[in-house]
Amino acid sequence: MTLQRTSIRIVVGATVLGSVSALMAPVSAASGSPTSERVRGGALVSVEHAADLTAEGVAGELRGKIDSSRVRHGVTAYRVTYRTTDSAGAPTTASQLVVLPKNRARHLSTVSWLHGTTVHRKDVASENPKSNDRLVALLLASTGRAVSAPDYVGLGSGEGFHPYGDPGATVAASVDGLRAARTFAHRSGRELKRKVQVSGFSQGGPATMLVGRALQQEGADRYFRLGALAPVSGPYNLSAFEAAAANDVSSPATRPTAQTS
């Protein structure tokens, strides 16, 4: 990939980037039950049914794309809109896909799946049934976990523009997405466990690192804590990579990793 093409991709990524309830009570991590968190931090705005699949249905969706050998349960998926903050710290809304397994477990392990670079607003897990990120969320939920797959600020049905890679907006949308997922699960008679398994691909790689650090070191939430971290194929030091590429000192074999979308 040439430097010119690389630059174009970064510019594009940086710039382009029925209803169940309204304004439902957000999570209170202090008390351990969803009762009173400030409105902008994960309060539910709306919930829409997105998919209902048996285990065989999940395997069918994954066939030819993702290994389905670990599918154990059917799943139900929801498009959840919730309150969060943008890169300036101003109140806004964001959307996510929340997927719950169809099993008898009341207490569910929690996964936060953070997606890679998405140029078009509707190509996210909550909106596009064929999105790879939706398939990953379905697979993870079919193993018995609850999955929060945030679209980030400015993508999906959320408000405003997507501030590509912005740390504050990335952490806010992801952590507030977990709070919203917990509230919804609670109202469905289920509880999300405290320790969160965080993973993501490409743009989701550094997002995973940011969210993991926020949960582990910075007390981003008073209930959720980091349980495991699995960042995949992300540009973890983008400015240094671009400088090296501009000076022709980076190996071509390393470039696709930093440019994964």
Shape: globular
The class by helix and strand makeup works out as: alpha/beta
Give, in spatial order, the strands making up the sheet with the most strands: 1-2-3-5-4-6-7
Strand fraction equals: 15-25%
Cα-based radius of gyration, to the nearest Å: 18 Å
Helix/strand order, N-terminal first: HEHEEEHEHEHEHH
Cα distance spanning the termini? 14 Å
Q: Could you report the average pLDDT, rounded to the nearest whole number?
A: 84
Number of helices: 7
Give the proportion of residues in helices.
25-40%
Count of strand segments? 7
Question: What does it look like?
Answer:
With 261 residues, the chain is of the alpha/beta class. Helices cover 31% and strands 25% of the residues. The protein contains seven helices and seven strands; from the N terminus they run H-E-H-E-E-E-H-E-H-E-H-E-H-H. The protein has helices at residues 3-15, 55-62, 132-142, 167-187, 204-216, 238-246, 255-259, and strands at residues 44-53, 75-85, 91-101, 107-114, 146-150, 191-201, 225-232. It has a seven-stranded mixed β-sheet, sandwiched between helices. Helix 5 links the parallel strand 6 and strand 7. Helix 2 runs antiparallel to helix 3 and helix 4 (167-187) crosses helix 5. It is globular, with a radius of gyration of 18 Å. Residues 1-39 and 253-261 have low confidence and may be disordered.
